[in-house]
Amino acid sequence: MSEGRQIGEVILDLKNISLRFGGVKALTDISFDVREHEIRAIIGPNGAGKSSMLNVINGVYRPQEGDIVFRGQHHRDMDTYEAAKAGIARTFQNIALFKGMTVLDNIMTGRNLKMKSNFLLDALYWGPAQREEIEHRKKVEEIIDFLEIQHIRKTPVGRLPYGLQKRVELGRALAAEPSILLLDEPMAGMNVEEKQDMCRFILDVNDQFGTTIVLIEHDMGVVMDISDRVVVLDYGKKIADGTPDAVRANQDVIDAYLGVAH
Amino acid sequence: MLYREAGQFKATYAEDSQIFPIRQDKIGIVLILAVAFVGIPLMSVAGFLSDYSFTAILTPFLIFSLAALGLNILTGYAGQLSLGTAAFMAVGAFASYNFMLRIEGMPILVAFILGGLCAAAVGIVFGLPSLRIRGFYLAAATLATQFFIVWCLTKVGWFTNYSSSGVITAQKIEMLGYTFDTAFSKYLFVLSVVCAMALLAKNMVRTNIGRSWMAIRDMDMAAEVIGFRPMRTKLMAFAVSSFYCGVAGALFAYAYLGTVEPEGFNLDLSFRILFMVIIGGVGSILGSFFGSAFIVLLPIFLNVLIHFLESSAGINLPSGISSSIELMVFGALIIFFLIVEPHGLARLWQIGKEKLRLWPFPH
Predict the structure, then answer these.
(1) For chain B, what is the radius of gyration of the CA atoms?
(2) What domains can be seen in chain A, in order of their start residue?
(3) If you count DSSP H runs as helices and E runs as strands, how many of each does chain B have, helices first?
(4) Which of A145-159, A162-176, B170-184, B266-280 has the lowest mean pLDDT?
(5) Which member of A85, A90, A124 has the closest CB to residue B203?
(6) Spatial distance between the Cα atoms of A236 and A21, rounded to a whole number of angstroms
(7) Could you tell me the residue ranges of all domains in chain B?
(8) Per-window interface: B 6-35 vs A, CB < 8 A
(9) What share of chain B is helix, strand, coil (3-state, %, to 5)?
(10) Cβ contact A172–B212 (<8 Å)
(11) Which of A57, B110, B291, B303 yields a CA-CA distance of 20 to 30 A from B352?
(12) What is the pLDDT of residues A121-130, one digit of tens each?
């Protein structure tokens, strides 16, 4: 973690969120907040509701109860489009890239909300449309440089190995220049070196662009190393919330998730 | 050896994002266009090409390419299966006819564009189910378009100007005092329209709108999360696709057949165009042309071949049998191609180019 980074005010405040699918309670009365520029981890056993929590934050799921305060504005629930416009970007647990498109095109899609050209100008590829396309291409190339994927920029994503796909997906989220980045298990299924690379990218994003990061991860080493605060879910309920050290010492968390060394 | 991009460096993003960034491809497309616009007319003037080659081969090939291109935008790029292509063509043809008929001094190109826009409007309406259903279910819903439009054009006399048989005779194609009435001039007219529209389509699929279609096709949920709006994107795909099919339908009536009836735009035609897209290459502009060439040209080629074999072998098959053999060979070839390369001729072409780049080395 860098020294220059200043953790700011609360940017996202989730209050008493409850989400049900029929009789199944996915989330029950969960409240936690995210401060600007921090790295906030969500941990918990499988089925604890971690991904559902992210889906609530960017509007994929609409909770039955609760209040989401984002940048001082109250929302009963979020809308995916509004969330994207407000600067919330995310990656998915099972990579959700556009498999038939190249790496370059995938990352370009991340910039769609910043594009003003309409389809008639696009069809003519004339003047402003071409200029805009090239201007965004420059930004995308910066991200490609940052993630060190220059060599695959014209490869269709479906042909890439898993680790690189995860990296491209991060690139697509970064292309939107988000203020909050939601990462759903960015390191799942990776080897140690790939995890190290991914950690480095996450920390660099946080440090260089000041992006707030909400992260779900199962690798406790990673979580405890890079996150500022951790919230722990179990069976859709919050059982702990605090600094990595406090959470690690919490008896409920040890019982539900971490376990003890035998 | 000929197809190498070594030494061709791109110093700007503008250069890198050209449609044909490789020099050899550029030369290739210029040659093809030169043959199409200059070579073929010269051959025709010199008497090497009969009217038949225009009316039965080149013009329908181009018109079907345009229709396949339209369907490819919807099915190949935006991933929405449709069986209503012929219906959208019918709307384009009959709308253009009515604009020409009812508005004095209507320029033909404007009538075609308005016809295309009518088809686009119909496309949007019948595209609405795509917001809820997908895949085969959507295909079944678009089937409704097919039956409804043909029924509507047959039953409502106004569309066919109360022609007793339901057949309409397309007006002459006139522009700037010149009448396109020979097979050869109609070919040039169709060629110009198809080239212009293919270029526009290529530009669309390589910019934001095309990316939005492919995003919805590949992973609609992720597309929504990064800010594409599914409704707008899908309906846009239906509109643009139907516009292309509508213009193709107008050309079908005006430059190819001359007289058309609603029943001419039946489900058979929709399926033919769908086959063109599947065989040519789903999600490829070039593939639409390949597919159309395959479906339009191959039967003619088979016909010639079988007649040649018959005469050279000295046997005379009854006409029914030789045409059945044609169909059987044609069907077998379709199955063969789909097994060998399910992504169509465009993919074969791409693999060929990749191999050629490395030749004589395997990788």
Answers:
(1) 22
(2) 1-87+179-262 (3.40.50.300), 97-177 (no CATH)
(3) 16, 4
(4) B170-184
(5) A124
(6) 12
(7) 33-266
(8) 12-14, 17
(9) 75, 5, 25
(10) no
(11) B303
(12) 888 888 888 8
